[in-house]
Amino acid sequence: LEGTTELEVYAKVYDAWIQIVLPDGTPLAYTPVEVAGIGTLETDSDGTIYLKQLIEGTYHLTVTEWKGITYTPAILDTSVEISASRTYTVEVTNAGRLVVKVVGGTKQGLPGAEVAVMKDSVVVARGVTGADGTWSVMLPSATYTVTVDYKGFTGEKSASVPTNGGEVVVELSTDVFIELFGVAMTFSQFILWIVVAIIIILVLAIIIHEYHVWRRKRMPQLFGATRPTKP
For residue 133, which phi and psi values (nearest 5 degrees)? Predict the structure, then answer.
């Protein structure tokens, strides 16, 4: 075979926007995504990466890092078929929901408790409990440390978040028995407060009683003795 033959190959190319979301639809924002054959790109605030002029075909996506923490196994390890210029939504299956319930000494829910979720000493989520004392967040599957702070009363527990959008409930108990005038108290502190209140009331009662006794004794001296009337 002599000479040179030019062969033109035509390929379909597309622009693709790939959005990565957690099972509840929360975007996996500002997260590095490795696209096989292309490189690593970071998602924007909507959890989206933009790939320009891709040849039609299948592309493998891998996410192993989130908020500066490396996850094993990977948060995302899947493929997406690019067949048109459009947005492709990819759901992270290796994630679940963490529900934190903060309760007091009588198992009452404590609203307004501050919650922090940590992995490898890095805070990955923060929140405040609602009226029923609970707060929840969707997270990549892993084991986390959950800490709570309710008006100086603290607690800590470990929690393993499941896969496939599963849910785990973690209950953290504090010694809070009651709250008076915005001050949280344990049962012993509440009893002590009652005892102190009773003592104060008794002291005031004694003072008032002694004052009335003293006042009755002083009345004749203040106004003088009553003169006897003539027969």
Answer: 80, 15
Whole-angstrom distance, CA of residue 140 vs CA of residue 127:
17
CA atoms within 13 A on the CB side of 115: 29
- What is the topology classification, in CATH, of domain 13-91? Immunoglobulin-like (2.60.40)
- d(C-alpha 138, C-alpha 22), whole Å: 7
Superfamily of domain 95-179: Carboxypeptidase-like, regulatory domain (2.60.40.1120)
Domains 13-91 and 95-179 share a fold: yes
In this predicted model, what pLDDT tens digit does every residue of 10-45 receive, in sequence order?
Answer: 789 999 999 999 999 999 999 999 999 999 999 999
And the tokens for 213? 């006794």
**The model's pTM:** 0.74
Report yes or no: 36 and 18 within 8 Å, Cβ to Cβ. no
What are the tokens at 91?
A: 């759901």
Amino acid at 57: G
pLDDT for the residue numbered 3: 62
Closest CA to 186 of 195, 194, 174, 196: 174
Read off the pLDDT band of 181 (50, 70, 90).
low
What are the pLDDT digits (tens) for 157-168?
999 999 999 999
Instruction: Give the count of alpha carbons within 13 A of 206, CB side only.
Output: 6
Q: Where are the domains of the chain?
A: 13-91, 95-179, 186-219
